[in-house]
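Researcher: Go.
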Amino acid sequence: MKKCLISIVCGIIAFVLGAKGVFGSVDKMFEDYVYHNPGNVNAKIKIIKIDDRTMNKLGDFSKWNRDVYADLVETLCVSKEVKPAVIGFDVLFSSEKEKKSDKRFANLCGKYNNVVTGFSYVFTKDIVTDSNGNLVSNAMTVQEKVMPYKKLAKTTEQGFVNALMDNDDSVIRSSFIHFDEEDGTRTNSFSAKIYEKYMKQQGKKAKFPHKDGVMSFKYSGTVSDYENVSLCDVLDGTIPSEAFDDCIVLVGAYAAGMMDAYFVPVDRGQQMYGVEIHANVIQALMEGKTLDSIPSWINGLIAALVTILLIIVCEKLSVLKIVILCLGVALGKIGIGALLFKEGYSWNNLVTPVLAIVIAIYYIALHYYRARAAKQSIEKAFSKYVAPQVVSEIAKSGTYELKLGGENRDVAVLFVDIRGFTPLSESLEPEQVVDILNSYLELTTSCIFRHGGTLDKFIGDATMAVFNAPFDTEDYVYRAVLAAWDIVQGGNKIEKQFVERYGKHVGFGVGVNCGPAVVGNIGCDFRMDYTAIGDTVNTSARLEANAPRGTVYISDTVYEQVKDRITVEEVGEIPLKGKSKGVFVYSITGVNNYTSPVDTFKMEDK
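Model: Structure:
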C-alpha cells in the first residue's frame, strides 16, 4: 500500500513536470541537436547575396540608388517567358532616393509582375481590450509599419520580414505566416507571400498549416547550403540569367556588417543570414516541413505512466535489469520522439528520459544501500563468532555463503572451562555470578579473536573455538596454543581481582587438540550453527576436562607441531572418556620469545 501511494505521488509529480515542460530551452536544444537533419535543400530556391564582394565593387550598400535593383530585375527577366517565378527582395525600400531610379525600379517590377518586397512592423507593448472586454497586455501592438515607397508598393506585393525568436534562447525555430492588424487587415509574412505567389505561378493553391499565424518548422539547409551567388556576378553576366528561370530568387544581406543574422537550431556555432532563414521557411511551406506541438497534457501523462510503472517494476529487478530497462525507456522515448519529429510533431523530449534515469539511479543506490546493510549485518553477525581479520576477509572476498553442509578440514580446537563454577555460583549472588561469567567470556573471546580463531559456541561456562575455519589460517596450531596461553595468563590476572572483589578464587582449565574435523553449518534452513564435529573436537574437550586450574593441556599431535616454540611438562598418557586408547598429554609451562598482552586486561568496575 505504501509503495503504491509513493508511486502515485511520484506519478503526479511527473505529470506536472511533463505538462509544464520544465526543461524549456534545454529541451529545445536537445531537439535541435538530435532531431534536426538538414542538408536536402530545394534547388528551386536560390539566393543572390549582397555580400562584401558586391559592396567592394558597387560601394556602400546604404548609398545605392534603385538602379542597382532595377538592373538586377532586368538581368534576371530575360523575357516574359524566361524569368524567375518569384523575386523576393529581403530589403526595406522605405523611402524614395532618386526619383528617376525609383520610378525605373518600380516600373520594371510592375512589368514582370513577379516581385515581392519586404516591409517591417514596429511592435510595442500596450494595454488593450480583448474579446471579452478585459484589459490585457499585448506585446505585439503595431506602433509603426515601415512600407516600401508608394510607387514600388503599387507595383509589387509585400510581406513583412519580422523574425520570430524564442523567448528562452533567442533562436529562430518558428515563423510568422500572417498577422492580423487591429483594423482586421490580414497581411502575410514575406516568406508566406513568396510561397503563395510561387504556387499561383505553378497553377496550384497555397496551403498554410496554421490558422493562428505562426508555425514551427524544420530547417532544410544550414548556413550556405542554398545555392548562393554574389549580386555583382549576376549583374556582370558571370552567372547566366537562365540559371534562375522559374525559380524563387531571394535577394538579401549576406555580410556581417548589415546586421541581419540570427541564431538557428541547425548550426548553433554560427549565425544564419535572414535571407537564408526565409529560404528555409519557404521550403518548409512548399514541402510540409512544419511542426505541430503535441499537447502538454499528453507529455505529462506519458511521464506519469512511465514513472509509476518503473517504480513498481524496478523494485523487483536486479541492478543490471534496472539499468537495461530504464536505459531502454529513455532511449525508446528519444527514438519515438525522432520518428514523430520526422512526421512533423514536436513534444517534450527530456522529462521522461530524465525521470527514467533518476529512477534507475535511485534503485541502483537503494540496491547498493541494501547490499551494504546486509553485508554489515553479516559482518556484525560473524564478528560475534570469528576474529575481526576473518570478518574483514569475508567482507572483501564476498565468497562466503550461509548454507547447510560441511567440509573436511584440518583444524585446531580449543576448549576452556571455569573450574568449580557450579559451587561458585551457589555461594554468590546472581549479579555477581553474571559479572564473573561476563568477565571470563570477554577474556576468552578476546584471546581467541586476537589469534584469528573462530568462536564456535558458549556451552554454559565453557567456551569452544576453532582455528583454520572457515578460512585457511597460517600457523593455526601455534595460534591456538597462543590463545590458550593468553587465556591462562589472563585468568591468573583476573583471579586476583575476583578475590579482591568477591573473596573467591576462579581458575581456568584449557585443552587444545588438532586434526581433521567436519566443519560447516549444522542445523536446518531457518536455524543453523557454524561448528566443528568429530574425534578431534571430542579429544580437545576431554583434554580440557582433565586440565587442572591454570593449566593448558595439549595432545601429542599439537606438541609435535609447536615443540620448538614452547616449553612443556610431560603429563603422560591419560585415558580419555569415550576413547578406547589413551592420549599422551603435555602441560604448557611457557612460550618461547612471547609476551602475553593480557597483562593489561582488567575487569570493569561494577
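Model: The first strand starts at residue 45 and ends at 50.
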